[in-house]
Amino acid sequence: MALKTREEYINSLKAMRPNVYKFGELIEDVTAHPATRRTVESHARGFDASHDPKYADDFTAVSTFPELAGKGEKIHRWNGMMESVDDVVANSRLKRWMYRFTGSCTGGLCVGWNAQNVLWNVTALVDGEQGTRYQERLRKWIIGAQEKGLVVAGGLTDAKGDRSLRPSQQENPDSNVHIKEVREDGIVISGVKAMICGVAASNEIFILPGSAYREEDRDYALACVVPRDIDGLTIVETRRPSDAREFEDGWDIPETGITQSYLFFDNCFVPNERVFMCGESKYSAKVIEYFTANYRACIGACVAGQGDVMIGAAALMARLNGLAAGTFANKMVDMAVNNETTYGMGIGAMVIGKKGPGGMWVSDSLLAHANKVHVATLPYETKRICQDIGGGIVETGCFPSCKDFSDPVLGPMIAKAVKASGKYSAEARARAARLVEWLTLGAGVPGCMHGGGSPDGAKLVVRALTPVNQFAELARTIAGIQEDVPEPEKKKK
Questions:
Q1: Domain membership of residue 408 as a residue range
Q2: Nearest-angstrom CA–CA distance, 310 and 211
Q3: Is residue 109 part of a domain?
Q4: pTM for this model (two decimals)
């Protein structure tokens, strides 16, 4: 069956070779270890939604490939193709639901999905101009991913090294993932991908070029997909703000969350059937263009979904503090406006987009990158308002732990101090306070500013795509100015 259940998904992770580390410890079972089980739980909720009639339209699809479409079976939408604007809008809806279900990112249901669609467009270009057969390989892999219901993380960001130097100029060539050897049956890769979301919860990882490369950097222009437990890959789960409590029991953090990883590739062999770009540096810029267009359109749904949870958490805190949520109606409206701004701008970018060279939909780059700028700013205001409504108990960090709260001697004393409204228990207020803290100071903060790329990078795209001269001509015509008013020539130094 193409639609996996939660249990089948978890068992698929249990069957993988352990290669994930945290705090220097090898994690034998990512589904059970406290450092990784929460991200697995988050992703598992996507499988639950796929089998729930209430959400099935957003979480499932019919394969566009005749081999599977003829069987009449549904696939998980995150394994599907984005051939129309409706398909990309469904991507946004799925993301918003996942944040509503988990309060955090589920990168394995997101980045690999976008990557396979990006590569479909790019391989059409490369094959058409270079006579390669990359898309045939990609097609076979995607059909397999749909049949197996895979969760696929995506690795773009390299460790990079010295930012003033190009990849081929780095003292440490492994600062960026690169091709070390081309064999008749595949390639050997090494290097580091950094800050990659959802890896511990994924079956496979899609590797894409981290930037637009010149010919001298052709060894870094590679695209492939590898099993998460491929020989030669070591994964280090990186520290998050919630780590101080993630090994504790109780409600100090939710049962959901996200992890980010450093991926250390050391002479990993990737067979040809999993390689979709091998040194074609000319096309690396297209990978970045297509990837960021859809990703930065859809990421508006991510922060909107988390913002929805923050509105709910703020309402809970108000009531548990003894006040009506309506007391803060104006502030909650401001939160909602922030949410709908990023969500709506993303949808707008999708609607005015168009099909790429391979037939997959590409959102409008100008509007998508403008959305990224808002994604890097508005959620922080939403978090501030959520803290404001919740009060000092959610923001100052001056709050006893669950372990103290449960102590037979200290617990009753703490409960009396924490309890506010006579209608609700002290534990309910404690849980809500911890949720707000987690959403605004913990796992929810990373990813808004630089997730999906930096806002300054997005502004560069907006600058490049904004036709200032054309707009100046429109203004000149309306003003009735007859003479030309060109941009002054740059002064020679």
A1: 287-465
A2: 34
A3: no
A4: 0.93
